[in-house]
Amino acid sequence: MAGLRGVNKYFWVGLFLLPSLIGLMVFTISPILSSLWYSLHDWNLLSPPEWIGIGNYTELFNDPHFWAALRTTAVIISLYLPSAFLLGLALALFLNTRVRGMVLVRTATFLPVVASWVVVSLIWKWLFNPQYGLINIALGAVGIEGPAWLFQPESAIVALVITSIWKDVGYIALIYLGGLQAISPTYYEAAQIDGANRWQLLRRITLPLLSPTMFFIVITLLINYFQVFEQIYLMPMRDSAADRQIEVIVTEVVKNAFMYNRMGYASALSWVLFGIIFAITFLQFRLQKRWVYDEGV
Amino acid sequence: MKHRFAKRIALLGVASALLSASLVGTIAAQEETTLRYFTFSAAPDYLEELDNIIAGFEEANPGVTIEVETAPFSDYFTLLQADVVSGDAPDVFELNYENFVTYAANDTLMNIDDLVTGDAPYYPRALEAFQYEGEQLALPETFSTVLLYYNADLFDQAGITYPTTEWTWDDVRTASEAIGAMGDDVYGLYSPVQFYEFYKKAAQNGECQFFNAEMTESTINSPACVETVELMVSFLDDGLMPTAAELSGVSDSELFLSGNLGMLVTGIWMFGAFQEATFNWDIQIEPAINQNAHHFFANGVAVSATTDAPEAAARWAEYLTASETAATIRVEAGWELPALDQPEYFAEYLALTPPTNRAAVFTALESPVTPPVIERQTEMQDTINALLTQVVDGELTAQEALDQAKTELDALIQ
Amino acid sequence: MATDTSRSLVSSRRRSTASNVHMFSPGALARALLVYAAMAILVAMMVLPFLWMLSTSLKPQAYILDTTPDLVPNPLSLESYAQLGERIDLARVFFNSTFVAVVGTVGQVIISAMAAFAFARMHWRGRNVVFTLYLATMMIPAVVLVIPQFILVKSLGWVNTYPALIVPGLFSAFGTFLLRQALLSVPADFEEAALVDGANPFTIFWRITLPLVQPALATLVIFSFMGWWNAYLFPLFVARQENVMTLPVALAALQGGPRALTEWNMVMAGGVVAIVPILIVYLLAQRWFVAGVVGSGIKG
Q1: pLDDT exceeds cutoff 90 at C85
Q2: Exposed end of chain B (fewer CB within 10 Å): N or C?
């Protein structure tokens, strides 16, 4: 990767990087720094901000809503991540079989990915309807009385995790598929000559060679799901216990910023969230040496 | 370098002063003014009506142009705040009562006492609602209230008499039992258990106050308030009212429209949608606990404190809220009711049926209640709503929930 | 047997020459049936909800309270689409959305590709620090940035214009990240050779590098287009007037708030209308799409 290190280095680096970097500085990084500044103020947006130092941060650590939101976010991630991770892998292995018509299946699994959450939530609200929704009808057919899915906090979290997995699994599988296709067939051929069975091939070749992809998926899903918001906002039935009680970090940010007129506090929440995500990402990069296969480059 | 820069700025200042002076001259001559008006109530259904009102105003005020911006209610106040923050608030904008207090307290509204003619026939109560610390900071635009709707056919089938102005919630209970007995999927009553219903029923109780008079402490866990919540929840506990799960996503209005609900407590804004009903229905003022009390929801129109054209802006606010043209257009289109004490404007409105008893809308105005307002209003509402839900679900008793509400509300008013 | 099943795990260009002779053994036939059953179930699970959306959009209003699931509504009605056309200036809104999405996608992809080139192909001091900065911008919730971004756009005088809808979204850390990963997995041999031949870096970038990562570019095109097309929050702030309003903002305005009854057939019609263009872009780009993730999805 020696690259183009020779020629008029800084002129060309500037030419390629600056359009993006300047734009990002102006339209994203400067607002991010503004939010850091706001987080040190008490600001209702209508009157001038009032400096309170780390007041928002100390309030935050004593705020039961923050801890409840953090807990719920953690619960959602722990339900979502392992299932999405494994189902995505299973789906990718399946999509990777060479069968006529698989392209159609691949397109079908990507349909939920392109749909907006507004549309997806409407569809699944109907499917999860306790009285006439298909899910409880199906459960009833095998003698199980389904819960009032999107009305109660616990069942609503399960329901929205199921919906999230349904929506994302095509995307995750697609990334896995990329990783699978990048594995050189020579590995398998060599192992087959040694008499390895199907399970051994998966265990000894596919999974280790797929581990960089797995790492990528874990990192991006973690970043995304710490910021889980749309499905929480859209899925619970209006005015139900689920609607009034489920809180995650970003719903708290939105409420404080736009409904409670507390922009400073919302900014502080965002920065704490940023800290958490950054720390976990950092930790993941540290831990990757233990399980992520490295060709020894 | 610095000096030259400062000089340039100074020159620029002089130039722009000259320029604006000459501009003022032209404005005085031609009065070319464009006003930005921001509204949530017009889109998406009443844009044409608004255009007609604007046409009337622009004809009466040559040189003044109204530029409309709309947003859905759910996003409106976020956008309005963003405008205020950016230093470029709309010249004229709509506010509901709760948000009016917030905006007034933050000095974002212009005192329009001296700018309006003062002879507009507003409802005194409505005009008062938009005063803050003795100043008129907005004009009442429209009002609405909440009443008791009933399915007359179900009452007939149950062989019971229709609600009267004398009813209390005990009469509602008796009627609900009779109607609910007519079938598993037939319910007597729907009256939501949430903040808005709570403060109104608290007023019907008369003794329940959310805060003490000095606003230093919450009194929401007083025995009268506990009683009020227990009354609200009792209809659910006794199976007279469908639970959220029993409704299973069907809204209360849809349930009423389906003909399986005896009585519904909801706003007069449902008149239009209920024209589709295939049964006879009517309205009555709300039952009392110890006294009558009705919601008084008002939208107002305010002039921004930072507008460049206060006179023109105030003239538009007044025209929009009080002119005969605007009032007539509103009433004809069913676009809420102007907050004007002018019975002749409403003659046509009152003649429309159903509901036959439309006059109840104005009877309700004799016992108006506005919500308790604190600076951290939405947080208070969310807190109370979440706790009421827990009472509904049987996780907390009314007493426990209100004790907790008191603690949280005390923290919010600190 | 072991050989056979294990081979099905591997999909590679080499296997395309393998014969399908196993299909005729009884075991293989049973397995094929199983695979097709699984495929059918998968397709049903993914597609049926959308068919329901389509069918709801084709119902007249009065039938919405009907809760029995029937996929083909009877009577079939285009009323909701007609109403949608009445309430929204569909031509205008579609033009706005398409214009913003197309210009935005092209701009975002080019700018991201250029930055990715600088990160993946050039060596300079501070590269890792700047790249970490890019990654960090993805870790702050976008909602908290909307107000300062709005103030900025307003001070530029862009409110209710196309630049407000397009410019702030052109600079994508995600896109840069995606394309950088793709570039890192493609050898730089051709580029080095071209450099030796005296080509300038821009020519190399345009003529050699971009074609090399064409699949990854297609991937980004789809994600980018999806992002622009579905964008709601910021357009809501900066596009208040009908002449610049985009589809999601216009559709949201239809849901009349807590006081109105929801017209489900119309909401679903809106959903159908909103999803069709993305599907078209997906189908157009999908030929390169799977291959695109090959290059971008590995090595976090």
Answers
A1: no
A2: N
Q: Answer whether A155 touches B (CB < 8 Å).
A: no
| Residue of A46, A239, A244 lying closest to B103 (CB–CB) | A46
Cβ atoms of B172 and B296 within 8 Å: the answer is no
Q: Average per-residue pLDDT in chain B?
A: 88
Q: What is the pLDDT of residue C56?
A: 80
The interface predicted TM-score (ipTM) is 0.82
Judge contact between B379 and B218, C-beta under 8 A: no
Do B334 and B155 meet the contact criterion of CB atoms below 8 Å apart?
no
Indicate the SS3 state at residue C125.
coil
Nearest to B244 among A47, A126, A239 (CB): A239
Give the Å distances, CA to CA, from A245 to A2, A80, A282: 55, 20, 32
Q: At A192, which amino acid appears?
A: Q
Query: pTM for this structure?
Result: 0.85
DSSP letter assigned to residue B135: E
> Nearest 5°: CA angle at A285, between A279 and A289?
145
pLDDT digits (tens, 9 = 90+) for C193-209: 888 888 888 899 998 88
- CA B380 to chain A, closest CA, distance in angstroms equals 9
- From B282's Cα to the closest Cα of chain C, the distance in A is 19
Residue B294: strand pairing partners: B368
Distance from CA of C242 to the nearest CA of B (A): 9
Beta-sheet strands, E only, within B173-234:
187-190
**Residues in chain A within 8 Å Cβ distance of C14:** 185
Q: pLDDT below 50 — which residues of chain B?
A: 1-29
Query: Quick one: DSSP state of residue B61?
Result: S
Q: Which two tokens stand for residue B77?
A: 């106040």
* Chain C positions in Cβ-Cβ contact with residue B270 (cut-off 8 Å): 259
**Closest to B52 measured CA to CA, from B324, B300, B318:** B324
